[in-house]
């Protein structure tokens, strides 16, 4: 926020009088109450290891407090690019979480998936991260009639595998939070409730993406309210249904009730392992009218109107 445009209390009393101060005081109180430090995921800049440094550079300049990337990106930087912690230290934006995908439909893959997930979890932990934002691997063409997916046909393996994945992450010392996502086995409202009501939530917590929920036809406000006690991490995303960003939009430009969701989440600010992460999807097939840094800054500017500080 530009300090050149901030009045001191004394200056404001001189120019507006006590009545004006009384009118402004709810806004000042709201700004004081907001304590969440908002981070950012990196996919607005792209999905590969090459996209990490440009993302961190913009995040540092804009003022996001932390970031999330993929487990395989951490591995790539650690094994092939001179070290993940080194690139993080260069831009001084700490990592909070890693997004990791594993299969939940094929039991024969589970052993190898656990091994992969634990490797990513160790790299995340050793880099200072606290949360694995866990997502089931996508279902190919799940909405085509000939390949339409029904979670009821796979429900035992879905629950058993995710319980095993969560415990494997916990064994590394991190929190595991389920991330429902369009195109995956956990997308619709029915699938979200099925998962969260049947998982062993001593181990698998909740990491909703409010934009993904809205795009999937669910009510993100209701879902966040119903599972608030299990939320440990959040992707803060807006959804407009437009032609860019896979239908998502910079914050404040879509239909997600972000204000209500943030108000609810503020009650959890002292009890979440993770953070609130701004996110906007990258779509390499259709270049948006705004550069990634501009879209990220516009979202930060919106959050500042709600009292968040950067």
Characterize the structure shown:
With 310 residues, the chain is an alpha/beta fold. It has a single domain (36-305), classed as Divalent-metal-dependent TIM barrel enzymes (TIM Barrel). It contains eleven helices and ten strands. Strand 3 (95-102), helix 5 and strand 4 form a beta-alpha-beta unit. Helix 2 packs parallel to helix 11. The relative contact order is 0.14. Mean pLDDT is 89; it is low at 1-31.
The secondary-structure element order is HEHEHHEHEHEHEHHEEEHEH
The tally of domains stands at 1
Write down the overall geometry.
Answer: globular
Question: Largest sheet, described in full?
Answer: 8 strands, parallel
Q: What structural category arises from helix and sheet content?
A: alpha/beta
DSSP helix fraction: 40-55%
N/C terminus separation = 7 Å
Q: Please mark out the parts with pLDDT under 50 across 5 or more consecutive residues, or reply none.
A: 1-31
Number of helices: 11
Question: Largest beta sheet: what is the strand line-up?
Answer: 6-5-4-3-2-1-10-7
Q: How many β strands by DSSP?
A: 10
Q: Kindly state the mean pLDDT as a whole number? A: 89
The name of the CATH topology is TIM Barrel
What's the level 1 CATH class?
Alpha Beta
- CATH level-four homologous superfamily name: Divalent-metal-dependent TIM barrel enzymes
CATH architecture: Alpha-Beta Barrel
Subunit arrangement of the protein: single chain
- Beta-strand residue percentage: 5-15%
